[in-house]
Specification:
heterodimer; A: five-stranded parallel β-sheet; 5 strands; 42% helix; globular; B: 310 residues; Rossmann fold; seven-stranded parallel β-sheet; 12 helices; 49% helix
Chain lengths: 132, 310
């Protein structure tokens, strides 16, 4: 039996719109993955603590409030500090095109904005999780 | 990475990795569990069962804080169902326990049943052992809450808490349960809903004392934070009862019997399924059973004999 892929879906910061995050959670579930949804208003430290305890392969961060440049790299930094830098971090939400290269440089493996086909996102998680 | 050594030193990442190895049934897991076992036996294992939506996760969230305030380290293993169609799962219990954040004295692990029936995952109690060995004083185990969850958990936990909520049915419905025979503590949650008094009254009528313990029935509201201290007292009270009567030792032996039996079953299943030689004979036997040349029980005996020989 193929190893199960475990993913944490989290919403850092104060953004309260989680429909997108839930859509992703369901898509990953339907693709056979185990999805831990940690809900709204999480601090980066909470997300990292959860990721470590749940030993996930990847963390999906959703942010629609524009705070992604602060919050997403912070999650990567804290994961590395916990010696969990192998956990893949993926971002989504409302992220301007020009921020994407900066996020990637900060360690976010992929950024998927509104309209990205779900199959593409699922395939990305699957590919990245294999590397662990 | 010597996960076990790190685990015993309280390393959470090691604990998490070890639990994953166990869940994935990796070869190192068996050896690791053997090394972990002598370091277990300290934690109070409290199971939570009851219908979905009754508020198990939310109550656990509140209880974690109370036990932390009482100076205890708390572990939580929360189980949710795996889809029989996709093999995936949404593990949504942790979302109710967001308050605990980065508290170093708390460890929460979400687990999917991965096809195992009965409200728990195969790895659930091995994960409990890992958390016990890490130094947790209490480990809460939350079942899926459907099917025969309650039977599984009652056989394996020290204390079983049944979480119900009002408006789940009238007196006849309450009589049917069977759930009402296994609880050590009953929590009628969401007491802010109508019908709470009637429900509690019906419950009081049904619940009977056992082994010198009368299961208390508590009114709680996880959302309002009502009755949580009393629930924690009842849980600790039950442990005290188990200790003072010597029942705890008896329970540990009963738990061990259950675990040995389950492990034997699993080993047999693996042996039959993964042994190529046994499989060849198995397929031939299945055809003979389908052709009514031999009955399935006799066929099973032949399989057992073959599996035992290899």
């Amino acid at each position: 039996m193929a190893k199960k892929i475990r993913v944490l879906i989290a919403k850092p910061g104060l953004d309260g719109h989680d429909r997108g995050a839930k859509v992703i959670a369901r898509a990953l579930r339907d693709a056979g993955m185990e999805v831990i949804y940690t809900g709204l208003r999480q601090m980066p430290e909470d997300i990292v603590e959860a990721a470590v305890q749940e030993d996930v392969d990847a963390v999906g961060l959703s942010c629609l409030s524009g705070a992604h440049m602060t919050l997403f790299p912070e999650v990567v930094k804290l994961l590395r500090r916990r010696k969990a830098g192998d956990i893949v971090v993926v971002g989504g939400g409302i992220i301007p095109e020009e921020d994407i290269p900066k996020l990637k440089k900060a360690g976010i493996k992929g950024v998927f904005g509104p309209g990205t086909p779900l199959e593409e996102i699922v395939a990305f998680f699957r590919e990245e999780a294999k590397g662990r | 990475m010597d996960h076990v050594r790190l685990l015993l030193a309280g390393d959470k990442r090691a604990a998490a990795k070890l639990i994953s190895l166990i869940e994935d049934d990796e070869p190192e897991a068996m050896e690791a569990l053997a090394r972990v076992h002598p370091h277990t036996g300290r934690a109070h294992i409290v199971g939570f069962t009851g219908p979905p939506g009754a508020g198990k996760s939310s109550l656990i969230n509140r209880l974690v804080r109370v036990f932390r305030a009482r100076g205890k380290k708390v572990g939580v293993v929360a189980v949710d169902p795996t889809s029989p169609f996709t093999g995936g799962a949404v593990l949504g219990d942790r979302v109710r326990m967001a308050d605990t954040g980065t508290d170093p004295g708390v460890f929460i692990r979400s687990m999917a049943t991965r096809g195992h029936a009965g409200g728990l995952a195969l790895a659930t109690f091995d994960a409990v052992r890992v958390l016990d060995a890490m130094g947790m004083d209490v480990v809460f185990v939350e079942t899926v809450g459907a099917g025969q969850s309650e039977v599984d958990i009652a056989a394996r936990a020290h204390t079983t808490v049944v979480v119900e909520m009002p408006l789940s049915g009238d007196a006849v419905q309450v009589m049917k349960a069977g759930l009402l025979e296994i609880g050590d503590v009953y929590s009628v949650n969401k007491v802010d809903l109508t019908g709470a008094d009637d429900f509690v009254a019906n419950l009081k009528f049904q619940v009977t004392p056992r082994d010198g313990w009368t299961p208390p029935i508590l009114r709680t509201s996880a959302s309002e934070g009502l009755g949580i201290e009393e629930l924690a007292n009842a849980i600790e009270g039950h442990l005290a009862h188990l200790k003072s009567t010597g029942l705890l030792d008896r329970k540990e032996v009963a738990r061990a019997r259950q675990e040995i039996f389950e492990n034997a079953q699993r080993l047999l299943q693996t042996n039959v399924r993964d042994n190529a030689k046994v499989q060849v004979g198995f397929d031939r036997l299945a055809t003979r059973v389908a052709k009514r040349k031999i009955d399935s029980r006799a066929a099973a005996l032949l399989v057992l004999r073959s599996a035992g020989r290899s």
